[in-house]
Every structure is written in structure tokens, then in C-alpha cells.
């Protein structure tokens, strides 16, 4: 099943079982927690048996990415397809944060309050993100990989998964505190104040944050090595491609989604600026064919694109992969450019758009 189909199956299950689920949420003391979990798992497993969630009072249902990057691009779409029949429920695609409220944290045999962790922040101007330094005597006594793992868990619980993923570019433990550091519980307000002062938009979904990138073109028979410049809202996918990894692509595939890119050659005499303009126009047409972005009705989204010395590239995330054969192929075949496509694997074949995509 495609991710769109899985999402529809989940929502259908939830609507059919809503009376029972509402009773469980409204009167938790009447139910055995293990029975509630077993029952809700029946619905969530229609998406994946590995997907984490919480269901609580006031009819709140929250999914969690738990650091799996592909889920930051799937769960917002899932929640956007919530049926109107469930308006009495609040669904969150990602864990919200505690903000300024301290909480007890336990991991790696350590236990301390989140308010005891000290933070310093710095701006990454090119991306509009922030780098963090942190200090806590117990947390920073761990080996660095363990220290970072625990700290990023703290960040997700403090800022929320979305804000942490979008705005924190890196974190570094310190061996001792530095002047000017402040408690982790102040971090969210400090970030919001800094963003307002800098005029940075408050982005709620990772697929709304576009990051520019550039390379020195290389001679290679492989696609995308001629890229001069581009932008993307899914940097992990781009990084995986050039490193020969498939972690994000496979993560999407586990849920029935797919990522691919289209490629075409603009006129030889065009410069980068003119080629970019053509690509932007085509990206808009492709998104229009896929459906309004963020509506819950789209079959996929344009993740960004790139311009190279020989080809242009348009990157797609398809919630319903057959859309490449269905709604996009007629548009692309009608174009004055000869399009090909490939998925985000370094050695994947590049095929003419006239051939079946095999993404379905």
C-alpha cells in the first residue's frame, strides 16, 4: 500500500472505532492500560508496527518521530488528512515540548532535572538555524555519542520535535560551564526572541524550510554531480545521495512513500539564472499537478531542485508513488523538455519519463 492508502486506512479505522476510543480517552480509569494499548495498536499498525504514539485525556493523540528523519516529512501529511468527523480530537504529528516547565529526565543510569542543564546559543546565518553548547556535570561526563544522544532527547522534550529538528543545527558538550549560559528551560523563549529580532519565520513543518546548497561541479557519468546550486527542504535525502546511503529513502519506503528526482537538459546557451527560472516554473506546475501543498489532498510535494552545468533536477516526495505515472507523466510528456527520472540512490538508473516508473 502507498502511504496515502495507509493513511486513509488508519483514519477509516479511527472513525469506525471512535466511540470506543473516546471512552478510553475520557475515562482512562475504567480501562486496563495494556488493553488500551493493544486496541490502539491495531489501528496504528495499519501505518507501521514501529510507529510511536501517545493517547491521552481531552482526546489528544500525538505521534512521535523519535529521531527518524523520514517521519518528519510523513507525519504532518498524515495528520493533514484527518477527517472532519474527528474534529473533537486533537492530533499532533510530532511531540510537543515542555517549554519552560522543568521535568525529571532519566537515561544511561543518570537522573536529573532538565532545568539543571545549562545552554549557550549561536546563530548559523546561512541557514537561519542555531548551534548549541551545553553543560551538566553528569550529562557531560558521558562519552560524547551518549552525551549527544541524551541531550537531543532533552531537546525534543523541551522544544518539541519539530522546533528541535528545524532550528537546531548542531550541539556540543562542554567540559565546564561558561559565562552567560542559561537553563535549558529558558531555551525556547530565547530562540523565539532571537528569531523575532532576526526576522526569521516561525516554521512549523520541516518541509517548509528550504536550505540553499552549492557544489563545485565534477565530471561524472552519475547524475547530480554537475550541480552548481540548489535548495532543498530535505537535506538528509540530499546528503544520503552523495554519500551513497539510502537510510532516508528506505525510511520513506517502509511507509509506502517514495522520493525521486526528475532531470532535464535546458537550452545549452542558458546561464544558471535563466535555467533556475525555468526550473522554478516547472516546479510550480508539478506541485499544481500533485495537488495543493499542505492540504492533505496532495499526492506528493516538490522538495526543491538544483541546477547543474548540463542538467536541471527537480526533487519529489511522493505520498502516493503511482502519481508519477498518473498525474505527472502527461504533464511532463507535454513539456518542451525531455524528462527522465530516478530515485535517490547513487547508482540507480535514469529512465525516460515515457517508461513506467516502477515506484508504485
Can you lay out the helices and strands and say which pair or pack?
Layout: H1 3-16, H2 18-26, H3 33-44, E1 52-56, E2 60-64, H4 71-80, E3 90-92, E4 104-107, E5 110-113, E6 118-124, E7 129-135, H5 144-159, H6 161-167, E8 168-173, E9 182-183, H7 187-198, E10 211-214, E11 227-232, H8 235-243, H9 247-254, E12 258-264, H10 272-290, E13 300-308, E14 312-318, H11 328-333, E15 340-343, E16 351-352
Parallel strand pairs: 2-3, 7-8
Antiparallel strand pairs: 1-2, 4-5, 6-7, 6-9, 10-11, 11-13, 12-14, 12-15, 13-14, 15-16
Helix pairs in contact: 5-6
Account of the 3D structure:
With 360 residues, the protein is an alpha+beta fold. The chain contains 11 helices and 16 strands. A 7-stranded antiparallel beta sheet has the order 10-11-13-14-12-15-16, sandwiched between helices. The chain has a 4-stranded mixed beta sheet with strand order 8-7-6-9. A 3-stranded mixed beta sheet has the order 1-2-3. Strand 4 and strand 5 form a beta hairpin. Helix 5 crosses helix 6. It is globular. The model has no long low-confidence stretch (mean pLDDT 93).
Amino acid at each position: 500500500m502507498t502511504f496515502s492508502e495507509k493513511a486513509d486506512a488508519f483514519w477509516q479505522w479511527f472513525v469506525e472505532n471512535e466511540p470506543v476510543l473516546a471512552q478510553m480517552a475520557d475515562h482512562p480509569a475504567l480501562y486496563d492500560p495494556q488493553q488500551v494499548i493493544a486496541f490502539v495498536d491495531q489501528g496504528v499498525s495499519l501505518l507501521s508496527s514501529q510507529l510511536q504514539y501517545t493517547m491521552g485525556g481531552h482526546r489528544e493523540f500525538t505521534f512521535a518521530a523519535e529521531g527518524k528523519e523520514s517521519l518528519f516529512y510523513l507525519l504532518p501529511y498524515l495528520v493533514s488528512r484527518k477527517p472532519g468527523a474527528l474534529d473533537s480530537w486533537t492530533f499532533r504529528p510530532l511531540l510537543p515540548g515542555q517549554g519552560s516547565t522543568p521535568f525529571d529526565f532519566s537515561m544511561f543510569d543518570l537522573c536529573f532535572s532538565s532545568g539543571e542543564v545549562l545552554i549557550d546559543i549561536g546563530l548559523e546565518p546561512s541557514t537561519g538555524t542555531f548551534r548549541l553548547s551545553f553543560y551538566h556535570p553528569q550529562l557531560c561526563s558521558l562519552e560524547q555519542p551518549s552525551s549527544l544522544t541524551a541531550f537531543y532527547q532533552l531537546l525534543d522534550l523541551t522544544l518539541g520535535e519539530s522546533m528541535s529538528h528545524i532550528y537546531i543545527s548542531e550541539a556540543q558538550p562542554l567540559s565546564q560551564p561558561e559565562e552567560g549560559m542559561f537553563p535549558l528551560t529558558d531555551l525556547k523563549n530565547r530562540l523565539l526572541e532571537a528569531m523575532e529580532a532576526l526576522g526569521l519565520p516561525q516554521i512549523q513543518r520541516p518541509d517548509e524550510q528550504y536550505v540553499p546548497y552549492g557544489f563545485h561541479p565534477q565530471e561524472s557519468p552519475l547524475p547530480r554531480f554537475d550541480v552548481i546550486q540548489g535548495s532543498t527542504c530535505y537535506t538528509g535525502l540530499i546528503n544520503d545521495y552523495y554519500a551513497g546511503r539510502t537510510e532516508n529513502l528506505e525510511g520513506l519506503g517502509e511507509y509506502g512513500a517514495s522520493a525521486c528526482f526528475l532531470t532535464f537538459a535546458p537550452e545549452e546557451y542558458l546561464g544558471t539564472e535563466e535555467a533556475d527560472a525555468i526550473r522554478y516554473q516547472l516546479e510550480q506546475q508539478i506541485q499544481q499537478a500533485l495537488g495543493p501543498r499542505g492540504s492533505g489532498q496532495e499526492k506528493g510535494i516538490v522538495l526543491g531542485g538544483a541546477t547543474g552545468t548540463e542538467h536541471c533536477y527537480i526533487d519529489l516526495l511522493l505520498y502516493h508513488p503511482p502519481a508519477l505515472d498518473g498525474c505527472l507523466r502527461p504533464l511532463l510528456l507535454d513539456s518542451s523538455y525531455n524528462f527522465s527520472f530516478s530515485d535517490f540512490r547513487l547508482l540507480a538508473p535514469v529512465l525516460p519519463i515515457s517508461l513506467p516508473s516502477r515506484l508504485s
